[in-house]
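Hi V.,

You were right to ask for the full record rather than a summary. Here it is.
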Amino acid sequence: MCADKTLMRALAIACFVLSLPAMTQIATATPPTDACALLSQPQVATALGVEVDSGKHIIGAGDCRWTERGKGTGADVALLQVNLTKAQSFEIGKTPISGWNKTAVTGVGDDAYIAESGKVTFPISPTLSVKKGSVFLVIAAKVPKASFEQTKAVEKTVALKVLEGL
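Predicted structure:
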């Protein structure tokens, strides 16, 4: 019986020691800093259903917007915006606001929610906010002639693609 306990203890210690490099890698992984590096141009084109120009930073490296190829701005232009954010902003985004619905989204990251006002108003509504480990991001899509539900589905698809690459 003692030999079995000793063997089990030795195996448990060996498993722990062998898993240390992986735990260290997970614990020290740094969050991304360039939002444009999170998705490739073809990935965005597939999500929006149109060809897109390369992503461009709007304010800084923490945000990126892809625009339908060859078009400026306007109601008939497909757009995708991804913003890297902080934990505090993610949590504040959950705060109830009159006229806005904030709905939990399952199957995306560690935590996710859609904030929406009932109509598509790019880049404000709907937006999908996602937390995965120490990464926090907000995704907004505009797809001309898409329904509100289709727009939310595009945002979820984009989120899953981003998380796949982390």
